């Protein structure tokens, strides 16, 4: 159930983390502080990982800016729904790789927008290395 609910951003994970709270409240040995901790600790860990660590790791591994990933997720999920949300990062990565192969200034500008500020594309690095 937690796996399915995690596809709903923020709200789904909160619902999944609230589910064990009634079990803690029904246990006579547990008090209210422990019930709050049962919710608060996983919620804090999940949101820290999901909102801070994952975008940084994904952007570093894919050479995409974190804001690009958020905009891509929003755009593709509006276009294709859940399937677009699942395929948003691979589609955006493929489009960026495709744009890097063109020497047209508009393609280079779009690729620079996808890469984010201060980064150079792999195609530009490869061309300078070959020269």
Order of helices and strands: HHHHHHHH
Taking pLDDT < 50 over at least 5 consecutive residues as the criterion, the unreliable ranges are none
What fraction of residues sit in β-strands? under 5%
Q: Percent helix among the residues?
A: over 70%
Largest sheet: none
- Give the terminus-to-terminus CA distance: 55 Å
> What structural class results from the helix and strand content?
mainly alpha
Shape: elongated
The helix tally amounts to: 8
Overall pLDDT score: 83
Query: How many beta-strand runs?
Result: 0
Structural write-up:
By secondary structure, the chain is an all-alpha fold. The protein has 8 helices and no strands. The chain has helices at residues 2-5, 11-18, 21-26, 32-62, 66-80, 82-100, 105-115, 122-130. Helix 5 (66-80) crosses helix 6. 11% of the residues are buried.
Brief sketch in words of this structure:
This protein is an all-alpha fold and about 130 residues long. The protein has helices at about 1-5, 10-20, 20-25, 30-60, 65-80, 80-100, 105-115, 120-130.
């Amino acid at each position: 159930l937690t796996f399915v609910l995690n596809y709903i951003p923020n709200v789904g994970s909160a619902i999944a983390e609230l589910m064990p709270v009634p079990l803690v409240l029904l246990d006579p040995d547990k008090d209210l502080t422990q019930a709050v901790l049962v919710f608060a600790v996983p919620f804090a860990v999940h949101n820290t990982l999901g909102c801070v660590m994952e975008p940084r790791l994904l952007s570093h591994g894919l050479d995409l800016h974190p804001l690009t990933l958020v905009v891509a997720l929003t755009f593709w999920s509006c276009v294709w729904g859940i399937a677009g949300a699942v395929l948003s990062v691979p589609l955006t990565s493929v489009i960026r790789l495709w744009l890097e192969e063109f020497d047209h200034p508009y393609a280079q500008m779009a690729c620079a927008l996808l890469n984010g500020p201060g980064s150079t594309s792999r195609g530009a690095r490869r061309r300078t290395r070959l020269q």
